[in-house]
Amino acid sequence: MRGVAGVRGDRRRANGRSGGLGRSRIRLGVLLVVAALLGAGALAWFTPVVSVRSVQIDGAATVSEQQIRELLAIPSGRSMLRIDTAAAERRVAGLPKVHTVRVQRVFPFTVRVTLVERVPVLFYDSRHGAHLLDAQSVEFAVEQAPIGVPKLITEHPHSADPVTRAAVSIVAAMPAALALQVDEVVARSISDVSLSLKDGRTVLWGGADDTERKSAVVLPLLTRPGTVFDVSSPNLVTVK
């Protein structure tokens, strides 16, 4: 008769064969899953299963959608996975009127482009036309100034000029209720900026310092009779 030790040995050998078979099946299953994923990836990459069928552009008001599409250079039918969104963003961001741009894949078939355009806060005239400046003093267009954008009067207007930049920062930070009243911004130096209002009154603003305090006092001050309102020293305002 076989002893207990022999029986136990048989069981261990049987369990070993069973365990090895189980591990082989797991490995085979993993290989099949990996192969399926690779196949699906190749299918999506090289075939039009998830291809571009539409390009959606949001936020384009003054920039031509046709120009954006040309810069995106995304042909219809190309696999979504083969779209280089970063490169497309760089190309569109090169447009002067574009402040920010984002290009996204929206599976299964759409590429979405979201633009934020530059908004003029001031313009200055030259023999070439009106130069538009945004809130960061970026000169992004030479064209007819939109209605309501104040004109900058200064000796050397330019996006890199410190006096121009001071005037831009003042207009960009002032309350909207005041900005709507401004017709011209006269900047003689970085510390001598005045606002000519549409009704003929003048606000002596001074420099770009204490903008928050000046903004807080100027609107109540404009309710008083007078033609010249000095907020260059916001703790000691005067009206003439």
Can you put this structure into words, describing what you see?
Helix content is 36%, strand content 27%. The chain has six helices and twelve strands. It has 240 residues and is of the alpha/beta class. A hairpin with a 7-residue loop joins strand 11 and strand 12.
Name its key features.
240 residues; alpha/beta; six-stranded mixed beta sheet; three-stranded mixed beta sheet; 6 helices; 36% helix; 27% strand
Write the layout of secondary structure elements.
Blueprint: H1 4-46, E1 54-58, H2 65-72, H3 85-93, E2 98-106, E3 110-117, E4 122-126, E5 129-133, E6 139-142, E7 151-154, H4 162-173, H5 176-179, E8 182-189, E9 192-197, E10 202-206, H6 211-221, E11 228-230, E12 238-239
Parallel strand pairs: 1-3, 7-8, 10-11
Antiparallel strand pairs: 2-3, 4-5, 5-6, 8-9, 9-10, 11-12
Question: Element order, helices and strands?
Answer: HEHHEEEEEEHHEEEHEE
The number of strands is 12
Please tell me what the overall shape is.
elongated
Structural class of the secondary structure composition? Answer: alpha/beta
What summary fits the major beta sheet? 6 strands, mixed
User: Number of helix segments?
Assistant: 6
Bin the strand percentage: 25-35%
Uncertain spans: 31-46
Alpha-carbon distance between the two ends: 125 Å
Mean pLDDT: 86
Short recap of the structure:
This protein is α/β, with parallel strands linked by helices and 240 residues long. The chain has helices at residues 4-46, 65-72, 85-93, 162-173, 176-179, 211-221; strands spanning 54-58, 98-106, 110-117, 122-126, 129-133, 139-142, 151-154, 182-189, 192-197, 202-206, 228-230, 238-239. The termini are far apart.
